[in-house]
Amino acid sequence: MDTNDLREWLEEVNKLGELQRIEKADWELEIGCISHLNTKRQDSPALLFDHIKGYPPGYRLVTCSLRSPRRVALTLNLPDCTSTHELLAALQRKLTQWESNLSLFPPKKVKTGSAMENVSSGSEVDLFKFPSPKWNELDGGRYIGTGDAVITRDPDTGETNLGSYRVMVHDKNTVGLYISPGHHGRIHYEKYHAQGKPCPVVISLGHDPAVFCISCVEVPSGAEYNYIGAIKGRPVEVVEEELTGLPFPASSELVLAGWCPPGETKMEGPFGEWTGYYASGERLAPIVKIERIYHRNSPIVLGTAMGRPPCDTAYYTSVMRSARVYCDLVKMGVPDVKLVWMNEVGGRLLFIVAIKQRYAGHAKQAALAVAQGSRASAYMGRYVIVVDEDIDPTNMDDVIWALCTRSDPEKDIDIVRRAWSSPLDPMIRKPTNAFFNSRAIIDACKPFEWIDEFPQDISFSPELEKRVKEKWNNLF
Description:
Elements: H1 6-15, E1 19-23, H2 30-39, E2 46-50, E3 60-63, H3 69-75, H4 84-100, E4 108-110, E5 118-121, E6 142-145, E7 149-153, E8 160-163, E9 166-171, E10 174-178, H5 184-194, E11 199-206, H6 209-215, H7 224-232, E12 237-240, E13 247-249, E14 254-260, E15 265-268, E16 283-295, E17 300-302, H8 314-331, E18 337-342, E19 350-355, H9 362-373, H10 375-378, E20 383-388, H11 396-406, H12 409-412, E21 413-420, E22 436-443, H13 462-471
Parallel strand pairs: 1-2, 3-17, 4-12, 19-20, 20-22
Antiparallel strand pairs: 2-3, 5-16, 6-9, 7-8, 7-11, 9-10, 10-16, 11-14, 12-13, 14-16, 15-16, 18-19, 21-22
Helix pairs in contact: 4-8, 6-7
């Protein structure tokens, strides 16, 4: 079912029975800790915080928004999916369709939007009016931007980018903006700064989670609004922000607009990231001087609680990047790819690919394509494991069994060196400006040259299992 904004999305999630309301939590650590503990629950609901300590009723914050197949399916306008396998199959079918339709759904400019209900400028700007949690105990400050969409524009091409980057509150009208090397938002502000100009920046902090979904994964450059439109089946309505000229979603709850000036930095971080570490530490990072704030009455901030995995966004990013890499492998001509899975705990650092082996070198081809060929997996990877089609990549018991019984370290492990990494990588010793890492690609498939002679695995036939389950249904 399509939703128009965050409020409609919350209504639908409530109908699914997957929304939990929490009142009177403290922005200092409690919201972060509650969200972290919630991710450990088997059926982790979305959390809606209200009456947050120090804030008026109605100034709300959402976390854990995308931690179930049903909520991801709702967000991406897919049929209801009750399992990860259903969701992956639906996404693998839809991604190619969405991308082929991008030109049909350019954003539609409108004159006003919901965030225009309240506009603050100049001395009226006060970021502390809105819930900004300190998420983890060693965080260097309060982060208002975690489930956000940071909007920038390439000064050379005019392409608009939406990226989910962390935003730290420094004072009532200044935020810190951290973007890892190689990401489009960083390239944009570096281009402006090289010309001695401030970079215009708009930050949407509350929106339909589909905006966040597309802001935090890899899509064709400059096509984020088109992609959301293709998902929704209608153009995204955007308002051209008056000071910067940048388009923000008309249905946004809370929007910040300002300028990232060249040569002006402040200490940013540390921040507990998705790797489970404070790996990027505290460092000088660009600031954005906020000159205008737009917000709805009783605005809702969309947040994500990062931390030791599997953290808040681990499920959604695993599903979306897995489907993205699967489609990329198909485009690259790798045959008979059965399933790709970016492990929730390993995140970008661990991809597992199941194939039906067709020829000598097939497994190595698939591994190299994942390690270097797809943008969705080329950034900050560490391990790629290729398994046979009888192994479920989402089941780590299956994967470890295959790894231990079908691979030989001397023959089946190769290393790719000097690959694209990030300051978030805890294995890169800082300070440095050389963010490289290595990739291990592991062939955990049955040896192709004697695959038909490989020992028979122990299993029960589906027919026997079905008969036993039916006869002993009280046990199962």
